[in-house]
Write a structure and sequence with these properties.
Number of strands: 46
Distance between the termini: 50 Å
Number of helices: 7
CATH superfamily of the largest domain: TonB-dependent receptor, beta-barrel domain
CATH topology of the largest domain: Maltoporin, Chain A
Strand content: over 45%
Oligomer: single chain
């Protein structure tokens, strides 16, 4: 009887109709609010799934009650959301998607247009979104600085370097800010070998993983007053915060490195935390070095070389109230290179080992009492240690650089007016010791200094906006103990929206950069050096084609003066090899002039990317020596192109192409056939043109509680044999009396695969 009763109850329950309902909603991009098509919406418990239409809208017939939704598409993060569905039609839900590895929020944080500027009325600004950084940073290394190399006005013809030049100026003249803190480039770097000696050429890699960078902004000319300390441009990187909704994790591994990130909210959702780490595999990178350095197994069949890098980041933000926040961030990088030399390697200046450590600690407090006032203070510390050793593990070079500082920024807006002001103070100590090992004679000290200095800068700018116009007037004052100079730098910017879709921008300003410790106290140092100066003039016209496409044309003139120049490179004088060995002097003046034109489309749907062409001419004069030459980075013609397209909810394709006419061989060279010889003129011989085409595909696999993304990339698809110059470090030339310079090819076709798991 009990079995009959149970069966009857089961049949009665089965006969009761399950109430159904209609779940509808819209998926939008968190930054712009743009509806996103081809997004997959899954209800695992009900085995239901659908795709959003061109308006980002979806409709599903589901059981009534509480349901778990999984929402994602390739290039965007995975959202898990519980919704309550009532009988019959339910109110539509709005779900916000963040680009892959970005901060997760449940609301739209910035309703901004695709080309809105991040700074206040800049005369020239180029930016990369989170998805663009991910597509351009290379699967192999995930380097955000390499993503920057695809921007208009940027020159990079060395596939082994993260550094780049901006409008003919060296990377050392570009201010690299990480979360508002000025760094000294912040890259892992290793010298390559040239004729058995350490070289001026380097292999380098950013210390920051691209997964942890939220956006990148390049200001290549006439940049505003809240940036300073460099004379050519600004690169501003912002690292992302932890997720504010729920704990998340991401693990990625590829042929060269593995990285992991875990992040989430604090209790009560009063802020967020983030932990991240990345480490490399040496064997793959080893083959890079051997191919271009002539060292290692490829050179003698016995020696072995290896490089390893690791870096980590912790970050926490705590919200005491909606008006007050505080946080702490720390980024640490470790880089090690080693070479096991074969028996018989007798050169005492041959590099055997390199170790370097980098650390950036940044604590901040932010106070926003209302919509009109903003105040932020930062206390920071930087440390860089590096050491090179020779075949006997004896010291070649040792460098220690520490810096502590304070930054405060104030913003006040009232009506059509906004005032920005701030102070940046730093205290720096630099120590360096370099030992030379001549062919004949005992070791000697090449460089040996231990110096400290303080530097302060203050800025103020006022921006008026009315109808279609904006005018910014401001300036910056900087003082350095190194040169005992105080320098005033006025700046101005003007924007006019001529018609609804036309915008004119003009900007001008003066800039200064104090000499570094090497230029003052190093082997070619001169303690009488003064600051270098530049004056920028920038103008652009922008034409919008709808809301997602624009044409941007820009012209510029940068006038440089008092640049430090050391006339120490070997050259021919009356057909005889000569090394003058003159120290740095403020003798160089010249200009960089050119223009850029680009067509760009940005959208959460369809094709996104740009095509740009840049033209540049430089000319410099060392008047005391009557020496004229073009910049070391004078690339007359540059073309960059990037395109990305989401084919399906789980597949997207992207490609980039960079072309540049040949840059000079820095130094006094003549080229006869395929060989280099000393010459009497500087920078007259050029490298062949540079060209590289890369392809990338991302394929996402969606599971009930996690997401797997496979990324496949092929670098240098056309197998272009791009050449780089590897020459002896100038200091080592004077130490050993030997100069080596040769051309080596970069990598050929280079495939790479990586997988990433998010849950």
């Amino acid at each position: 009887m009990r079995r009959v009763h149970t069966a009857a109850v089961f049949l009665l329950l089965k006969a009761v109709p399950v109430s159904s309902a209609t779940l509808s909603g819209q998926i939008v991009d968190s930054r712009t609010g743009e509806p996103i098509a081809k997004v997959e919406v899954i209800v695992p418990g009900a085995s239901k799934r659908t795709l959003t239409d061109q308006n980002g809208v979806f409709n599903l017939s589901v059981p009534a009650g509480d349901l778990q939704l999984y929402v994602t598409t390739v290039g965007y993060g995975l959202v898990k959301k519980v919704v309550h569905v009532s009988d019959g039609p339910s109110p539509p839900v709005r779900i916000v998607l963040e680009q892959d590895t970005a901060v997760r929020r449940d609301s739209i944080t910035v309703e901004a247009g695709p080309f809105d500027t991040l700074n206040s009325n800049p005369s020239s600004e180029k930016s990369l979104s989170k998805s663009e950084i991910q597509a351009l940073a290379m699967v192999l290394v995930g380097d955000p600085l390499r993503a920057t190399q695809a921007l208009p006005g940027v020159t990079s013809d060395n596939d082994f370097r993260s550094e780049f030049s901006v409008r003919g100026a060296a990377y050392e003249r570009v201010a690299v800010y990480v979360d508002g803190i000025l760094t000294d480039g912040f890259v892992h770097a290793a010298n390559l070998a040239a004729g058995g000696l350490t070289s001026s050429e380097k292999l380098s890699l950013s210390i920051i993983n691209s997964d942890n960078v939220s956006d990148i902004t390049l200001l290549p000319g006439a940049f505003p007053s809240n940036y300073g300390e460099r004379t050519a441009g600004v690169l501003d990187l912002s690292t992302r915060d932890g997720n504010l909704v729920k704990p998340m994790a991401r693990l990625a591994t590829g042929l060269l490195s593995t990285s992991a990130t875990v992040d989430g909210p604090f209790a009560g959702h009063k802020g967020s935390w983030l932990l991240s780490g990345r480490t490399s595999y040496a064997d793959y990178l080893q083959r890079f070095i051997e191919r271009i350095s002539g060292a290692g197994r490829s050179a003698d069949g016995q020696s072995e070389s290896e490089l390893n890098f690791s870096d980590a980041q912790i970050k926490g933000n705590y919200h005491f109230s909606p008006r007050q926040q505080a946080g702490l961030s720390a980024i640490y990088g470790l880089f090690a290179a080693g070479q096991t030399l074969a028996p018989g390697q007798s050169d005492l200046e041959r590099l055997k080992g390199l170790h370097s450590h980098n650390l950036l600690v940044n604590a901040f407090w932010r106070y926003t009492p209302g919509s009109h006032l903003f105040l932020e203070t930062k206390v920071f510390g930087l440390r860089e240690d590096s050491k090179d050793t020779n075949r006997n593990d004896a010291l070649l070079d040792r460098t220690k650089h520490t810096e502590e500082g304070f930054r405060a920024d104030l913003g006040y807006a009232a009506g059509s007016q906004k005032i920005d002001a701030g102070v940046y103070t730093s205290f720096t100590r630099a120590k360096k010791l370099a030992i030379g090992y001549p062919v004949a004679g005992p070791p000697n000290s090449l460089e040996d200094f231990d110096r400290t200095a303080a530097q302060q800068s203050y800025y103020l700018q006022d921006t008026w906006r009315k109808a279609r116009t904006a005018l910014t007037v401001g300036g910056r004052v900087a003082h350095s103990d190194l040169t005992a100079q105080t320098i005033v730098m006025p700046r101005v910017a003007f924007t006019l929206a001529v018609y609804e879709n036309w915008t004119l921008r003009l900007g001008a300003g003066t800039y200064a950069q104090f000499p570094d410790f090497d230029q003052l106290f190093g082997f070619f140092g001169n303690r009488a050096l003064r600051a270098e100066h530049s004056t920028h003039f920038n103008g652009s016209v922008e034409r919008r084609l709808g809301t997602r496409t624009r044409i941007l044309a820009e012209v510029y003139d940068r006038e440089d003066r008092n640049q430090p120049f050391g006339f120490y490179e070997p050259l021919l004088v009356d057909d005889s090899p000569t090394a003058l060995g003159r120290p740095y002097r403020n003798v160089l003046r010249g200009h960089a002039r050119g223009g850029e034109i680009s067509v760009q489309r940005r959208s959460a749907n369809g094709l996104t990317g740009w095509v740009s062409y840049s033209y540049l001419r430089t000319q410099y004069l060392d008047a005391p020596d009557q020496l004229r030459f073009v910049s070391d980075f004078d690339q007359r013609n540059t073309i960059t192109a990037f395109a990305s397209y989401r084919l399906r909810p789980t597949v997207d394709l992207s490609t980039q192409w960079r072309y540049g006419s040949g840059t000079p061989f820095p130094g006094f060279f003549d080229r006869k056939g395929g060989s280099l010889f000393l010459g009497a003129e500087r920078n007259t011989v050029r490298l062949p043109y540079y060209s590289r085409l890369d392809l990338r595909m991302n394929k996402a696999f969606l599971f009930p509680k996690w997401k797997l993304t496979v990324s496949a990339e092929v670098l240098n698809v056309l197998n272009r044999k791009n050449l780089i110059l590897v020459s002896t470090d100038p200091v080592r030339v004077y130490s050993s009396g030997r100069l080596a310079a040769n051309l080596d090819s970069s990598f050929g076709v280079l495939p790479s695969v990586a997988i990433a798991v998010a849950f």
